[in-house]
Amino acid sequence: MRNEQRLPTRTPESRAFAERVQLAMGLSAKFNLLPFDDLAARRALLTEIFGGPIPDSLSILPPFYCDYGLGASFGERVFINQGCYFLDFGGITIGDRVLIGPRVTLSTAGHPVEPDERFAFLTHAPIVIEDDVWIGAAATVTPGVTIGRGSVVGAGAVIAKDVPPMSVVTATSHVERKRLGPEPTAP
Q1: What span, in angstroms and rounded, lies between the C-alpha atoms of 108 and 92?
Q2: Catalytic residue ranges
Q3: pTM of the prediction?
């Protein structure tokens, strides 16, 4: 993952992160229970989730799931369809006039690949979505990815590397990146 940072677990910083996750997920649950036409209450909860003012032109349809909130920022005229997941600890920057389809996942966090490190750290890297991007239904964007201006990400695509500006990308695939070594023995 490009620009990967690590947060050690079982530290004061990781405990603060976990507390913020509890708060953001609770606020997201409240957001999803509001009547659809209660725009003022939805906007107030989004301001709490994201830790400050949001553009008046931002539209997020419920249900919406966010696990941190403080790492997301939005341009003007952003539309986020229903059922989206933002795991934004590593930072999600969304430019102007971005369209995000239903059930899209933007995930900036994960765990180390090596089995003996997985419970010792959280990894994270930012996602940047530049102006005029359209992300199709059920696409997944992984940590450290930039999607260039004007690009289209097809429905169901898994984006694990940068998308150049003014490109159309589609498909999912299984690509073996490396072998991790021998299987660990059971404790």
Answers
A1: 7
A2: 111
A3: 0.90
Q: What is the pLDDT of residues 74-88, one digit of tens each?
A: 999 999 999 999 999
CATH class of residue range 5-173: mainly beta
Strand ranges inside the chain, DSSP E: 5-8, 59-60, 64-66, 72-74, 79-80, 84-87, 92-94, 99-100, 105-107, 109-110, 121-124, 127-129, 134-135, 140-141, 146-147, 152-153, 158-159, 168-169
> What are the distances in angstroms from CA 145 to CA 59, 110, 127, 177?
23, 14, 5, 17
Longest Cα–Cα distance of the chain, Å, equals 55
Residue 183 in this model has a pLDDT that exceeds 70 = no
Give the Cα separation of 158 and 10 in Å (integer). 31
